[in-house]
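Running low. Got one?
___
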Amino acid sequence: MAAVRHYFDTQTQMNSRLSPLISWPLEIELDNGRLRFAEDNPSIRQVIWNILATRPGERLMRPDFGAGLSNYIHQPNNETTRNLIKDAVARGVSRWEPRVELTSVQVLPDPGQISYVNVSIHYRVRQNGAAGQVDFALQLASGA
């Protein structure tokens, strides 16, 4: 039986490159039929997206995995909800993506659309100190 290693356990293998992960969405290389692997910053961004989109309890064998941002979709766009989103993002990324150190998380109302918040995640890659950023808009219920 082949041993399976999780990327969380490969800190010592991160010497010259960041550990590769299977690319998400799943891609197959047409020339050889192998799965495509994401490396470096694209790998980190894909893992962050996966963390944010996954609800805790949704993933088998890791019931605590995820930030559960979809839980906030029907909440009012007020300061309390924005602070809860910010906390969920910070806790999820800090816990489940050990290759980065968060430098800031901002959740601000969108001035053009009352039901949207703009989320900006800034991080530093632990291995090489490179800065990275993930930005997205999340639609909530309208209201203040």
